[in-house]
Amino acid sequence: MNDTHTLGNQGKPLPLEAKIALATWLGVAGLLTIAGNGIVLWLIFRKRSLRTISNLFLTSLAAADFLVGLVIDPVWLVVRCLGYNPKTYFETFGRSIDYLWIHTTVATTFNLCCVSLDRYVAIIHPLRYHDFLTNRRCYLLIADVWFMSLVLPCSRFMVQDKKALSTLYLSFTVMTILFPMSIIVFCSLRILKAASVHYNSIKPASSCAQNQDVIRRSKNNYKAAKTVSIIVGLFVVSWLPSLITGLAHYFSNLVSYDSVYYTVWTYVETVAFTSSAINPWVYCLRNDEFYEALSRTFRFLKRR
Length: 304
What we know:
mainly alpha
């Protein structure tokens, strides 16, 4: 988390070249995030066949990522790249910025957990999938995720003591990054193993007169497992630097955070936000139903 309470007048802003590069990065990432997730949400709204239980979780994730591009990327561009008095600015807006950061992080990482758990149940327990994940349970789970994303950051407004804030930021780091990452990685490993075994078991008999629906479903699950693995890989690459930085900052007992704020945190948080721009394109390019709906809308995509 960005420990904004330690900023003072000693904070040195980024040089002009770094500001231009960072502003370009955040600007492009924000536009791609809005466009990509906006297309996913629009396709699901437009095409009834895409409104499955699994895609409800993707819809929730796309909404969370859309907020990153619409709110967080522009805010971060202003905070990091435009000139202002750091002490005055963060005394006025620091808590609100932290609230937005925590809210979107919780919404994104917890929705990724839901996507991974959905694929885990679908592949590990395919015959009981609809028993475990009914429409009602799906809506309740998504509602819980958004409720937590709105309520958990409120604790930021109640804490002012610097030492307590450091502990609070560590708690948020563990809850919003480490905990979801553990669940996502565990589910991904189990999914890959189960899908690979199932897929390999049907390959020798694929030419025989066996149930083609089982074969098709197994292949789709294997492809879905690979997609989840790609998303998990992107999640780890994007959020691990933020996790390491947060833990290192807390346990090294840094008092002055000015130099770290303007260097390390600037880039690790920007990398974390960029993951929201990549997720929707992975879904559209690797999901046949999404790609078909997308190619019908944009004819030039029919030629891969």
